[in-house]
Design brief:
This protein is α/β, with parallel strands linked by helices. Helix content is about 35%, strand content about 15%. The protein has a seven-stranded mixed β-sheet with strand order 3-2-1-4-5-7-6, with helices on both faces. Helix 2 crosses helix 3, helix 4 packs parallel to helix 5 and helix 4 crosses helix 8. The longest helix is centred in the C-terminal third of the chain and has 19 residues. The termini are far apart.
Length: about 220
Amino acid sequence: MDKESSKHHTFTREELLHALNERHSPETQQKLSDGKVAIAGLGGLGSNVAFALARIGVGMGRGHLHLIDFDVVDLTNLNRQQYLLEHVGLTKTEALKSELLRINPYLHIQTDCVRVREDNITYLFDQDEIICEAFDDPEAKAVLTNGILEHFPGKKYIAASGLAGYESSNLIRTRRVMPNFYLCGDEVTEASYGKGLMAPRAALCAAHEANMITRILLGKADV
């Protein structure tokens, strides 16, 4: 197959699964494919987490990726989020789903274009096994964290705190706060003038969240 014709080739599910199996092993890939993961907030953290999980085939089997965000893509999002100019004005759920399906069209992706509130947490996250908190707003973080700990204490919960600016990469870490609650970031750094949310450090923290999700899916509870 020449390069030109390969651009238009539609790969089958079996071909994509075979490629993932070669990289990860069939046993590992089955666990990843069957993962049921929700990502709440699809900005600098959530869009990067979603890209990482989509590339390893999470949700390709009996599982799913559940994308949750009420917002639309804004031009100011492009400094750190996995969107393109063509996505400005689209809902983040719609834009991100379209991008992920370009990576793997056989993923099972659910979307909810809603704001997470105290009164919809039980409905939104009932079918998810792992929940990733990826909000910018501290109040939204608190609402989700408190809601998950109250209503779904048995589910695995991965949150983030402290990722702004361009402080040392080595300050970003993953900490196990409670048996089912993990926190990623430096837990200190807030956005300030000249040190706002930027792509490199947001991606670093997102990678911590995505890797912890991967470990949990593969039976590793420690950090």
